[in-house]
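Any chance you could type out a protein's amino acid sequence plus the matching backbone structure tokens because I've never seen that pairing?

——
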Amino acid sequence: MKRFQIRRVRTVLLAMSVLVACSKNPAPSGMPGALSKAVSAYTGDEFHDFVSKLQYTGGHERERQCKNDPACAGTKRTVVRVDAIATEDSLGVTNTPQFGVVYARAINKGDAEETRYG
């Protein structure tokens, strides 16, 4: 199973999605985050519109390491909130839509870039 970390920054939010794209199955009903085309075919605005229409649940915030700020080499951290897509569960190789599926978002609520995802 491959995972592609995608980020499209065109708004105040940082939308992060992890795509599972191993299967060529049609999108199962009940998968609101199923992509209708390859993620590289979306413009930043199209992707933003797509993820902003999804419903999110179960979020939590974590302090994460930051970068591109001298204080990040010391004790500075940035706060990132991660939310799951509501009703998006039981993802696997056998039921993944052809172009993948968005199953989470992360919003950087701090003032510095997060180390791993940006």
